């Protein structure tokens, strides 16, 4: 039990609160499920965690906020783990209240360093009688009764649209709580797009790894159409449910082509591409975490056609140049600023 996240251990200290049909929203460690009970519902928006949840007997696993297993008023106890992005908490609470039966208990668990104090204000805005039941493992546990379930939870109500213009190309981008760079074009992606305009990728099919809301693929196809060039099909992969939902919506809105899929890295992906582009993540919550990108760089060559191009933007302080050199080919710096570097390499 000592290897469990603090929030999961804090929940286990209060397992006497878990009655009837239990749902865990935002669970991050599947090993907690058998310790909670022999059945229930567990939701994660992370493709890798969801895959692991699917292997726990007796538990119904759900991927993200649009999983068909999420049904109205089916739970007696709903545990909401504090998400990394505070904007996502209202989203998760709205889902919890829709899943709750009349008289259900809603439990909010989170670490102090993750902002549980502020999260409690969001909880009490919906359930004013919520009270603290425990403080342990650097976490707080809050509980409230749901007198009546919410009658509506529509995914479309949580999607926002932002117009992004770069290098003369405008696209409409879908956003949802928790999605990277919500409502703006981040500096690293902008630098990558600059290089795509100046030094175009010569490929009929491109893979956008960690595609987020589909900005790179939509912009690239828009730029190609505007320049009267052949339009590449841009497939997308992302680990997060909301990103996949948004990227598909962004592609539909902008008339783009490409297959958007959920995937935790490349290990479960079939096929090779003549080009792969990426602005990969390097944070897990508030911590710097380059493990996903390092794994990607170890595996990416097997998904590039011979001579195929990798183009990657990353914070300049991250040591990706030598990893690209080791696993793909000669790493060329196409663009470098104080904060970001765009690398290009061709599979040797």
TrEMBL record:
Keywords: Cytoplasm, Methyltransferase, rRNA processing, S-adenosyl-L-methionine, Transferase. Residues 9-159 form the Methyltransferase small N-terminal domain. Its main location: cytoplasm. It holds the Pfam family MTS. GO terms for cellular component: cytoplasm. Gene3D superfamilies: Vaccinia Virus protein VP39. It catalyses: guanosine(1207) in 16S rRNA + S-adenosyl-L-methionine = N(2)-methylguanosine(1207) in 16S rRNA + S-adenosyl-L-homocysteine + H(+). Belongs to the methyltransferase superfamily. RsmC family. Monomer. PANTHER family: RIBOSOMAL RNA SMALL SUBUNIT METHYLTRANSFERASE C. This is Ribosomal RNA small subunit methyltransferase C. It comes from Marinobacter pelagius. The lineage of its organism: Bacteria, Pseudomonadati, Pseudomonadota, Gammaproteobacteria, Pseudomonadales. The gene is rsmC.
